[in-house]
Design a protein that fits this description.
Blueprint lengths: L6 H22 L8 H14 L3 E2 L12 E4 L18 E10 L2 E10 L5 H20 L6 H7 L1
Antiparallel strand pairs: 1-3, 2-3, 3-4
């Protein structure tokens, strides 16, 4: 849980969150057949620099990417590289941006062009689980309440 005690911290958090969401959306919009995960990584780094932020994954315990990019069977925290995205892939992008002392995380999963019916169902079910978990994250609830909702 994050406790923000000063108004300027809340303002910095809002600005950081907006920058993170904007960069994530722009990187996700570049996911297409023929693009490599390394190209997405480089684009995220470029956008972060333009926004005067930093990609917090980069260099963390030796991590070589600015983003985490996972394709299909890769569960999470995939390392960007030469992998070429193809029609039918399911690509997850995880981005952590540091800005003005705040570090914010965002992730998005993208179905590339014509995904399988099974992949479509998986994405719908996981999005519904996410929404249920967010709805359960209320003052007074416990982590187990979120888990039960999911």
């Amino acid at each position: 849980m994050i406790i923000v005690k000063k108004p300027h911290e809340l303002a910095a958090m809002r600005i950081s969150a907006k920058k993170t969401a904007t960069i994530l959306h722009r990187v996700a919009s570049k996911v297409a057949p023929g693009v490599t995960t390394k190209e997405l990584d480089e684009y995220a780094a470029e956008l972060a620099r333009k926004e005067e932020g930093r990609c917090a994954f980069y260099g963390y315990h030796g991590f070589s990417g600015h983003i985490c990019s996972s394709v299909n069977e890769e569960v999470v925290h995939g390392i960007p590289g030469r992998r070429v995205i193809r029609d039918g892939d399911v690509v997850s992008i995880d981005l952590v941006i540091g800005y003005q002392g705040m570090v914010l995380d965002g992730a998005q999963t993208i179905g590339v062009a014509d995904i399988s019916p099974e992949a479509e169902v998986l994405m719908e079910v996981t999005e519904a689980a996410l929404k249920a978990g967010i709805h359960a994250a209320q003052p007074g609830n416990k982590v187990r309440d979120i888990g039960a909702a999911i």
